[in-house]
Amino acid sequence: MRSHFDIDAQLFLFQNALRSRMRVAVLTSGGDSPGMNAAIRAITRVGIRRNCQIYGIFGGFQGILDEQMHELNSRSVSRILHRGGTFLTTGRSEEFRTDEGQIKAAKILDERKIDALLAIGGDGTMRGLAALSKHWKGKLIGLPGTIDNDLYGTDYTIGFDTAVNNALEALDKIRDTAQAFQRIFLVEVMGRHSGFIAVHVGIATGASAILIPETPTKIDELAQRVIEAREKAKSSVLIVVAEGDELGDASVIGKELSDRLGEKCRVSVLGYIQRGGSPSHFDRILGTRLGAFAVECLLGGRDGGLVGEIGGKLVLTPFEETWSKPKPFDEWMMGLVDELSG
Ligand code: F6P
C-alpha cells in the first residue's frame, strides 16, 4: 500500500514535469494573410508533439494586454488549414506601441508563466517583438505573415502567393472587358509601401506598365508608353498600380493620364478581395514549414529573429534586419516589362 508521502512525492514530480514543459504562446498581428492558419496549426501540433504547452492569444498584441489567452490542443486547430484570415484574429494595438504597454505585456506573460512568444505578421509585428525584447526575458520568434512580401529575411512571406493569385484572377477578367471595348485600364493592387504584388501581378498578366512606390512614376513617360502601345495596334492597355505609388493612387494617376491622352482611362481598385480566400498550396506549405521550424528553433535554443526561407533553406534573421535591410527586387524582370508587353 502506498503512503501519503509516496503520493505527495509523485504529485510533486508530476507537477515539476509539467512545469518544465515549455509554455509557448502564439499570436497573429497586423493585416491578416492567407496561410497564417497553416502556421498556427503547425506550431500547435508540432509543439504539442514535442512536449510544449501551446497558448493562442486572440486579437494580436492587444490580446496579451486584454489577457485573451487560451490553451490550444491538437483539435483546436482542426479544419483551419484551408481557411483564409486567421483563427486567432488579429489587430493593431496602439497601447502596445507604448513603453507602458510593452511593460504591462511583459508582466502578464510572466504571470502566465509563458516561456516563449511566437508572432506572425509583417514589419510592424517584427518591430513589436523587438520592442518587447527590451522589457521581457522570454524567447521571441517572428514568422513572416503579410501579403505585401516586404520583409527582408525570407524570399516569400506567407500570404503573398495567394494574394497575387487573387489579383491575377481579377485582372484576367478585367482584360476581357478591356479588350472588348479597346479600353485603357488602371488596376490598383495592394501594397502601401511596396510593389511586390504589383510587379508579380503585372508581369503575369502582361501589363503595359507597372507603377510602384520603389521607383519614380513619370506621368509623361507613361502617357507616351500608352500612345506607343496604341500605335502598335494593342487593343487593350492594362496598367498595374501599387496603392502606395508616390504619385498617388490609381484614381489620381488615371485622371492625370486621361487628361494627357484625351481619352478616359478606367480605374478598378481590387482592395481587400486580394487578402482573403483559401490559401494557395504554396502558402499552406510555407506556413507549415515556417511554423514547424519556429518550434524547432525554440527547442534548439535559437530565438530573437524572423524565421524565413531563402533559396530553399530555412533561416533565422535578427528582427532589426527584417525592416532595416531592403528586400531585393527582381530588377531584371522589371526591366523586361516594356519588351514583354509587345
Ligand atoms: O499589410 C498588408 C496590407 O494589405 C497592405 O497592402 C495594405 O495597405 C494594408 O494592409 C491595409 O490594411 P488595413 O486597411 O487593414 O489597415
CATH-defined architecture of the largest domain: 3-Layer(aba) Sandwich
Question: Radius of gyration over alpha carbons?
Answer: 24 Å
Count of the domains: 2
Strand content: 15-25%
Structural class: alpha/beta
Q: State the helical fraction.
A: 40-55%
Order of helices and strands: HEHEHEHHEHEHEHEHEHEHEEHHH
Q: The biggest beta sheet, please?
A: 7 strands, mixed
Q: Which small molecules are bound?
A: 6-O-phosphono-beta-D-fructofuranose
Give structural notes.
The protein has 342 residues and is of the alpha/beta class. The protein folds into 2 domains: 4-159 and 279-324, Rossmann fold (3-Layer(aba) Sandwich), CATH 3.40.50.450; 162-275, Rossmann fold. It is 45% helix and 17% strand. It contains 14 helices and 11 strands. The strands form 2 sheets. A 7-stranded mixed beta sheet has the order 3-2-1-4-5-10-11, sandwiched between helices. It is elongated and about 85 Å long. The structure holds 6-O-phosphono-beta-D-fructofuranose. The site of 6-O-phosphono-beta-D-fructofuranose (F6P) has 10 residues, from loops. Residues 31, 122, 146-148, 190-192, 243, 275 line the site of 6-O-phosphono-beta-D-fructofuranose (F6P).
